[in-house]
Amino acid sequence: MPVHKYAPYEPIGLESRTWPSRQLTEAPLWCSVDLRDGNQALIDPMDVHRKRKMFDLLVSIGFKEIEVGYPAASQDEYDFVRHLIETDAIPDDVIIQVLTSIRSEALERSVAAVRGARRAIVQYIIPTSTAQRRVVFRASREEMLAKSLEGARQAVHLQETTPETELFLSFVPESFTQTEPDFALEVCNAVQEYCAPRTDRTLRIALPATVEAYPPHEFADRIEYMSRELAYRDRTILALHPHNDRGSAVAATELALLAGADRVEGCLFGNGERTGNVCVPTLAMNLFSQGIDPMLDLHDLDGIRRVVESCNQIPVSARHPWVGEFVYTSFAGTHQDAIAKGLKAREGEDSGAFWDVPYLPVDPRDIGRSYQALIRINTQSGKGGIAHLLRSAQGMTLPRRLQIDFAHVMQKFCEQQGGEVGADKLWQIFMDRYVTPGTTPWGEDRADVPGLPLDLDKLSGDWPEWARRLLVALSVPVTVQDVVVNKMEGRSDYAAFCEVDDGAQALWGVGIHKDETEAVLGAVRAVARRARLETARAQGAVTPTGGK
Fold first, then answer.
1. Which helix (H) or strand (E) holds 482?
2. In a structure prediction context, what are the per-residue pLDDT tens digits for the chain, which is 548 residues long?
3. What pTM was computed for the model?
4. Phi, psi for residue 507 in degrees, rounded to 5
5. What does the alpha-carbon distance between residue 208 and residue 134 come to, in Å, rounded to a whole number?
6. DSSP 346-377
């Protein structure tokens, strides 16, 4: 690798940093940039219908600041901002934001776009990095400072001409992460010193990680430096706009909030230019999992994901934190067993007890997931997970030895068939193996097992003794080990489990019926059929091709 081409970042060397000893206790002010930064990164940008669908979603989630476009960039962008204003689609407690360059005509166009809104933010940007100054503007630091002040003067003038709209101005030194810290501070303070005496409104500075250029701790140091030294800090909302080029946008954002930032701009599920903007739901769920109100309504996270996928026409990864298809799912047997035991233990706890279930940082029900999807079966799965899935999906609690037996059956099936087994298929395999063995073809030749006569008069005593007498009457040479009966959860049925030993192995039969006696008879019938099937297999009358 040509490592000689790349220079390491220069640490700011902040002394007496305070952020490492702090802890987040409240959510920041959130601003969605899905309709601007997210939209401009799409192969097929959103049309008006998809934009409106996204806007309505953002409002329903609880965003109070929403960037709705770059109206100076195109007529479509301008028209959508006007659509929101003229259809009165913006709730009273929501502030729209538009982005613009610092050029005079772009500022004028942007302010014109938001006229008539109750409240709006015009966020004006100028690139300040060394590379942009050298390559794009061919300008010195002094010249870029002068351009920034000229933009601020124009922005303040336009603010004064919109009395019908409470207009806030937000200055952005674009590519902050690639700008010398002292120059970023000099430019921001010059703008602050000009704007502050000319308005009584809240000042705003946004510091974007336009390109993520160093580790999260360095970003936090630079944010704390800016927060400490920024003029009129007590009147200023200090915002972050992190991108994910190094894959650490979430961590960088959390540390920067500790370092003093007040506001976060990001997208739903990390959409945005290149590797995307910081994922706001991930940040919000991180807070939620620590008992902090995220100030966003994420109770139907899957529903939010579906709308986002429809609008962006990009799927959300199955492994995306908090919302991906698999993030509350375990395939590994040890994990499944721990989850099943944790959930079972939780049933007996006080409802006010803190959530503490292995491998599940939050209760999936809090974001709209059911427990049924927690455990999915493949070759790595174990008895605990399989038993949990049968209990959660069918209300059936298996005896421990049957859990072990069925786990072996499923291991063999998954090895032969490959892939994953869903809850419905798992139940079908269980039924074929233990409830109706030999009566339906399932991966093997059909066994010729005769029907079993049942004489209820011969039943007397406890369930194991009843099972023993009936099996003797049916001439099935097995030893009864146990018969267990329990009520199925959420159903009116009983489940009976009959375990026998045929001299070579343990065999199981299961009966399900609304009547307890009929359930036991069904279990005896099933285990007798299983015993005869195994005898036929041993004699070569049945050719096994599956795990049944």
1. strand 479-487
2. 999 999 999 999 999 999 999 999 999 999 999 999 999 999 999 999 999 999 999 999 999 999 999 999 999 999 999 999 999 999 999 999 999 999 999 999 999 999 999 999 999 999 999 999 999 999 999 999 999 999 999 999 999 999 999 999 999 999 999 999 999 999 999 999 999 999 999 999 999 999 999 999 999 999 999 999 999 999 999 999 999 999 999 999 999 999 999 999 999 999 999 999 999 999 999 999 999 999 999 999 999 999 999 999 999 999 999 999 888 877 776 787 788 888 888 887 776 789 999 999 999 999 998 765 666 666 666 677 778 778 878 999 999 899 989 988 888 888 887 777 777 888 999 999 999 886 543 333 333 334 444 554 555 558 898 888 888 888 889 999 999 999 999 899 999 999 999 988 999 999 999 999 889 989 998 999 999 888 888 877 655 444 44
3. 0.80
4. -125, 150
5. 20
6. HHTS-TTSPP-BTTBSS-GGGGT--GGGSB-B
Report the distance separating Cα 428 and Cα 442, nearest Å: 10
Q: Any idea of the CA torsion for 458, 461, 465, 467, to the nearest 10 degrees?
A: 50
Q: 457: which DSSP letter?
A: G
Q: List the strands of the sheet with 494-501, edge to edge.
A: 479-487, 494-501, 506-513
- Residue 161 Cα distances to 67, 108, 111, 166, 326, angstroms: 22, 11, 9, 11, 53
Helix, strand, or coil here: 267? strand
Q: How far apart are the C-alpha atoms of 461 and 453, rounded to whole Å?
A: 20
Count, residues in the chain: 548
Backbone angles phi, psi at 273, to 5 degrees: -55, 140
Sign of CA dihedral 335, 337, 340, 342: negative
Q: 444 in helix, strand or coil?
A: strand
Helices 141-160 and 181-195 cross at an angle (nearest 10°) of 30
SS3 110: helix
- 271 contacts: CB under 8 Å, gap ≥ 6: 34, 38, 41, 42, 277, 308, 312, 314
AA identity, residue 163? P
Residue listed under structure tokens 């706890």: 349
Smallest CA-to-CA distance from 544 within 451, 452, 441 is with 441
Contacts 24+ apart (CB under 8 A), 364-367: 364/328, 366/288, 366/299, 367/285, 367/298, 367/299, 367/300, 367/301, 367/302, 367/322, 367/323
* Residue entry with tokens 């892939």: 419
Query: Do 278 and 264 meet the contact criterion of CB atoms below 8 Å apart?
Result: yes
Instruction: Return d(Cα 432, Cα 450) in angstroms, integer.
Output: 17
Strand pairing report for 494-501 and 479-487: antiparallel
Longest Cα pair distance anywhere in the chain, in angstroms? 104
**Beta carbons within 8 Å of 97's beta carbon, 6+ residues apart:** 31, 65, 66, 67, 68, 120, 121, 122, 123, 170
